[in-house]
Write a structure and sequence with these properties.
This protein has 42 residues and is mostly helical. It has helices spanning 3-18, 22-41. Helix content is 86%, strand content 0%.
């Protein structure tokens, strides 16, 4: 696993920990999934 992927995962986890509402969690998870998908395909 590259450092870029680890950074994206870390950023997603940090964003997930920072959100305050269930809707915010869903949005953060969705954004994290998109970031991971982009990291894997690029």
């Amino acid at each position: 696993m590259t450092y870029a992927k680890l950074g994206l995962i870390g950023a997603a986890l940090l964003a997930l920990a920072a959100c305050n509402t269930i809707q915010g969690v869903g949005q953060d998870v969705q954004d994290g999934g998109r970031a991971l998908e982009n990291a894997v395909t690029n």
